[in-house]
């Protein structure tokens, strides 16, 4: 018998992958807008983080923060958070998806994102990458910047949700 899901992935399932160390308001904006474009959105948390990264929060903590925010946004019925530690394309296939969702903050993201999208398309020919422009208020935000501000006990209220700010302040 043919495995329909694996051979004919549902293009209406999008996967939004990242390190999310921690999730920011910029990521949540992409999740809300991305969820409106598909039937199901899987937020994939890379367990060890992207190349060269050493996350400060373990994957399940990052996932729990995301799940709490997604529940708060009232979209848990449509958005799922899953930790993965495989190649992204294999994670995509396991979700029955062929579509990666990524946010673009500006020109600095463009080259990296294009090469990642191209590599994924070479490894998995059905793979598409959909880009959403970052919210104008989040074009400068990164998880590294958020961690740095937290380390110096700065105000995080415009960058991350209150739960994430509390976790960061408790850590530093
Ligand atoms: N708002 C706020 N921040 C944003 C953002 C937005 N809209 N969009 C991107 N960012 C930031 C993130 O906070 C992150 O900041 P940081 O570098 O300071 O941590 C940065 O932009 C990009 O990180 P992220 O989106 O988490 O991607 P990544 O580069 O850490 O991870 C993976 C990329 C996990 C998708 C990639 O490494 C992967 O697919 N890994 C699996 C293994 C694999 O298949 N590798 C081959 C890929 S070709």
How would you sum up this structure, described in words?
There is one protein chain. With 172 residues, the protein is an alpha/beta fold. It has one domain: Rossmann fold. The chain is 42% helix and 18% strand. It has seven helices and five strands, in the order H-E-H-E-H-E-H-E-H-E-H-H. It has helices at 4-7, 25-35, 59-72, 88-94, 107-123, 143-151, 162-171; strands at residues 13-18, 40-46, 79-84, 99-104, 128-133. Strands 3-2-1-4-5 form a five-stranded parallel sheet, with helices on both faces. It is globular and about 45 Å long. The mean pLDDT is 94. It binds coenzyme A. Coenzyme A binds next to strand 1, helix 2, helix 5 and helix 6.
Structure described in brief:
The chain has 172 residues and is α/β, with parallel strands linked by helices. It contains seven helices and five strands, in the order αβαβαβαβαβαα.
N- to C-terminal distance: 54 Å
Number of strands: 5
Instruction: Work out the count of structural domains.
Output: 1
CATH class wording: Alpha Beta
Average pLDDT, to the nearest integer?
94
Largest sheet: 5 strands, parallel
| Helicity range | 40-55%
Sum up the overall morphology in one term. globular
Strand content: 15-25%
Instruction: Give the CATH H-level superfamily.
Output: HUPs
Write the topology of this structure.
Elements lengths: L3 H4 L5 E6 L6 H11 L4 E7 L12 H14 L6 E6 L3 H7 L4 E6 L2 H17 L4 E6 L9 H9 L10 H10 L1
Parallel strand pairs: 1-2, 1-4, 2-3, 4-5
Bound molecules: coenzyme A.
Features:
172 residues; alpha/beta; Rossmann fold; five-stranded parallel β-sheet; 7 helices; 5 strands; globular; binds coenzyme A
